[in-house]
Design a protein that fits this description.
alpha/beta, seven-stranded parallel β-sheet, 15% strand
Length: 273
């Protein structure tokens, strides 16, 4: 008799326990579905502060009192860039090019027009890292700073190896040196890197190579602008198919108004009249 009562009590306890276990998921699902139907007031989380980025601006005075390094600045579009920088008030311009005689003549010419020590020359090979680095160091030592670097990509009648060295390897090396000497992460204050691709004849025999160089420069500049600006504060700009007649207008506009990574196409400047 005692055994029967004991078994009944065990069965009752087991049935109650099982019933509660079976009801627990249903209650949980029911409670959660009800909770979703209620108007729950959630406190709005404050937005995470964005990392502060200082965007380099030339200010109201534009190019005035800035120091620039211009590669390929002894003739053509590069020479026009040097003149425009001096005309708009640059404190100093270092011309870096391959022809020493032309370089010294340009210094004498510009010194008469714009004053002594506002322009200097150093001989380089755009594809030679040591000579190109020396141009950066000499500019910083002579003018006590560096704000703008302009690389002039010229298409000349050379073999394709020289074209690639001067117009692709030279751009890559100069960009690396810009980030090294002007980058905020390396102790610099940032600045502007402008790569200028000169115009070329569409139907010439060397057109495919020139077009490929231009496409490389555009893609390379945009990639550098996207991946390095936040840490270096170096703004990367590009002018494509630049012409001698309009480069003065294009140069001033893009340096003062261009946003990081932008690509500028030729414009028609309004007449001074």
């Amino acid at each position: 008799m005692f055994r029967l009562l004991f078994l009944k009590s065990i069965r009752n306890i087991a049935s109650i326990f099982l019933a509660k276990r079976l009801q627990w998921p249903r209650n949980t699902l029911h409670n959660s579905s009800m909770a979703r139907g209620k108007n729950v007031v959630q406190t709005e989380q404050p937005p995470k502060p964005n990392k502060e980025i200082f965007f380099p601006q030339l200010g109201r005075d534009g190019i005035k009192d800035k120091v620039a390094l211009v590669t390929g600045g002894t003739d053509g579009i590069g020479l026009r860039c040097v003149r425009e920088l001096l005309r708009t008030g640059a404190r100093g311009v270092m011309i870096a090019d391959t022809n020493e005689t032309k370089g010294f003549n340009r210094v004498i010419e510009f010194s008469k027009d714009y004053g002594q020590n506002r322009v200097a020359f150093i001989q380089i090979n755009p594809a030679n890292y040591v000579l190109l680095k020396n141009a950066f160091i000499s500019t910083i030592n002579f003018y006590k700073g560096l704000d703008i670097v302009i690389n002039n990509i010229r298409f000349r009648e050379k073999n394709w190896e020289d074209q690639v060295d001067e117009n692709i390897k030279g751009i890559v090396l100069s960009t690396q040196l810009c980030l090294e000497f002007m980058g905020r992460n390396n102790g610099g204050k940032g600045g502007i890197l402008l790569n200028i691709v000169s115009e070329y004849e569409e139907n010439s025999d060397s057109c495919p190579l020139h077009s490929a160089c231009q496409d490389f420069v555009v893609r390379f500049d945009r990639s550098v602008a996207t991946s390095h600006f936040e840490t270096t504060n170096v703004k990367v700009l590009t002018i494509c198919k630049a012409s001698f007649d309009t480069i003065g207008c294009d140069l001033t506009t893009i340096l003062t108004k261009g946003t990081n990574g932008c690509v500028w196409m030729p414009c028609t400047c309004p007449s001074d009249s």
